[in-house]
Amino acid sequence: MEAVERLAQAIDRNSGIDGLHPTALPRVQLIRSSRRVDAIHELHRPAVCIVAQGSKRVMLGDRIFEYDRRRYLVVSVDVPILGQIAQASEDEPYLCLRLDLDPAVLSALWLESGLPEPADSAPGPSLMLSDATPDLLDAAVRLLALLDQPDDIPMLAPLIEREILYRLIKGEQATRLREIAHGESRLRHVTRAIDWIKRNYREPFDMRQLAAHASMSASALHAHFKSVTRMSPLQYQKQLRLQQARGLMLGEAMDATSAGHAVGYDSPSQFSREYSRLFGAPPLRDVARLRELPPSFQGSAASTGAGFAQN
Q1: What angle do CA 144, 146, 147 make, to 5 degrees?
Q2: Which residue numbers delimit the HTH araC/xylS-type domain (predicted)?
Q3: Is there a single domain that holds both residue 201 and residue 101?
Q4: What's the number of domains the chain is made of?
Q5: Is the pTM of this model over 0.85?
Q6: Which of 129, 146, 224, 272 is found 20 to 30 A from 23 (Cα to Cα)?
C-alpha cells in the first residue's frame, strides 16, 4: 500500500466525523469533509498542509492554488484566503493533515542541518505548492501512528516533526522556509507588520506607525507586504475587521450594527457595503448560510482573535 493511502486511513481513523480535529500531537490537526464546501474566508496561519484524499482550492488575491495528494501547501505568514474543498464525497472524503510551522523549530533545525543558506531574495507569495514525495508522506504516516502510542508522543513526535521539516527545507521550498526561520529576513519584517495590524485592527490605519514597527521604510514595507499577501496593509486590516465582525455575529449572535462598531466601523452602511463586497452577501444572509455548515467549519469561518483560522 502506498504511503498516501496509509496516510488517508490514519487521518480517517483518527478524525471519524467531518470537521477540524486537534490531536495529542503538538501543532498537528486533522481535517475531514465528506462533502464539497463552498468558498469560506479564513485567516490561515503558517503551516504545511498535506492532503491524503480529495482536493482543496485556495485563492490569495488574484492567484488560485489547488492541492491534493500529489501536492502539499506551505503557508508562510498569517494571511486572509478564500478556501474551498473542491473534491470530497461520502465514499472518498477530503482528508488533510495540517502541521503548524514554528519559526524557532525551523531556525534550530537549519543551524543543526548544516545546509547552505539559500540566495537572498525578495519575499514571494505566502502560499506555495510543491510535489509530495514518498519520504515526506512516509514521515507523516509515522507521525500519526504515534496517536496509537500516546506514551511515545513526547519523545518521538518532535523527532518526526523535525524530519518532516528537514524534508521541506531540502526541497524547493527552502528559500521561503528560511525566511520564516531567519529573525531578520524581509519576510519576518512583514510578519512583524502583520502582528501589529492584528493587535491594532480596530484603530484608524497609520502607515507610519506600521512601518516603524516593522523597521522598514513605508515604501519598502508596502511593496514587500503586497508581494507576500497579494494585498496592501490597509486591505489586510479591512479583511481582519470584517472577519472578526463575522465571528462576532456567528459565534456570539451579535447584530450587524454592533459587530461593525466593535471592529472599528462608525458607519453601519459602510460596514454592510464592505461586508457584502468581501463575503458576497449582506451580513444576516451570509451568517444564515454559514449556520448550515458543520459546526467545526463554522468555527473556521468565525475564527477571531489570536486563533484566526484553520485549514
Answers
A1: 75
A2: 191-289
A3: no
A4: 3
A5: no
A6: 129
